Amino acid sequence: MKILIFAHVDQYVDDLSQCKNFNQVQTYFVKKHLLKLGVDVVVQPAAGWLGVKKQTKSTWYDFVQNVDTGLLNNYDAILFTGAIPTKKTSPTIMKWLNNNYKGVLAQFNEYSKTPSTDLLFFALPAPESARCKWIGPLYDGDCLYPEQQYDKLIIHIDHHYPGRGDSSEKIKRLIEELPNNKIFQQGWKGYEIYYHSKKINDLENFDFYNPPPNTAFANLSRIYRSTHVGFLSHRETLGMYPVEIVACGGVVAVLDEMHLTPAIANIIDVEWGEENFWNRVLPKLTSELAHLRSQRVSNFSYKHGIARVYDYINTFSTK
């Protein structure tokens, strides 16, 4: 099988140490696991003609200038990667592809919707249909797995996202309470705090509203693997951060119930709210429980998810 991936990125480098946003990371792992299944994969950056909200308008002209339409039918399937890759794409382009491309058109998406392609693979749990398949918020088990030590407590705070709420003051207040907790005093030799990719040495001067710049996922995953407690600091739509923290054996803390959809909460173990927080959480930070948490989301690894994607594409009756 030959698959052409149209990635919702401006540029794509086939190197995880250079992938700095979700769409690049997802494309890297989709390609990686398709190759493991023996698929011949080609990736083309396509954000320039797919369209990007408030940045790039999708036009037919940009499509024909950047895509050799005469070669598309050399592929058995075309796969759009990204959080919502065709959301801003010109209807003219999608209509042409549906009418002229002979293989299977498929795409990834955050949520279930009426697909503009033959198949849609979505992340947030919802009922499936013949053309819409739930595969979950996928993570890579080769990069994300439990790797904690139990000397210092490692705390990670997810990055600020404007317009999606703010739990920063609640998070700071809980961390400030930590040194006085008896369970912590008896079992841990201090703690370290990370905000996205940056180590925080002074909580008092913690600048929540200016998160560190995007870093390569290869660097961020190293922090995730050591994390004991990951604080969700804003409304999480795709569910990636909670699943990735749990895949690494960590506990996900949600201090504002509006920040995590019940559908994602049902997949993982979540610690809700501030009340009696450390007395609830600290006893759960053991190596045995970390591996159990990781095992709970193992069905959402790229290894399993892309195998399903491959099977659906391979058996789909083309138009």
Name given to the CATH homologous superfamily of the largest domain: Response regulator
CATH class of the largest domain: Alpha Beta
Got a strand count?
Answer: 12
CATH-assigned fold name of the largest domain: Rossmann fold
**Strand ordering within the main sheet:** 2-1-3-4-5-6
Low-pLDDT runs of 5+ residues are: none
- The ordered string of helix (H) and strand (E) elements is EHEHHEHEEEEHHEEHEHEHEHHH
Q: In the residues, how many domains can be counted?
A: 2
The CATH architecture category of the largest domain equals 3-Layer(aba) Sandwich
Strand content: 15-25%
Structural class: alpha/beta
Main beta sheet, described? 6 strands, parallel
Distance between the termini: 18 Å
Shape, per Cα inertia axes: elongated
Radius of gyration from the alpha-carbon trace, in angstroms: 21 Å
Mean pLDDT across every amino acid position: 95
Q: Helix tally?
A: 12
The percent of residues in helical segments reads: 25-40%
What does this 3D model show about the protein?
- With 319 residues, the chain is α/β, with parallel strands linked by helices.
- It folds into 2 domains: 2-138 and 301-315, Rossmann fold (3-Layer(aba) Sandwich), CATH 3.40.50.2300; 153-298, 3-Layer(aba) Sandwich (Rossmann fold).
- The chain is built from 12 helices and 12 strands.
- The strands form 2 sheets. Strands 2-1-3-4-5-6 form a 6-stranded parallel beta sheet, covered by helices on one side. A 6-stranded mixed beta sheet has the order 9-8-7-10-11-12.
- The protein is elongated and about 70 Å long.
- The model has no long low-confidence stretch (mean pLDDT 95).
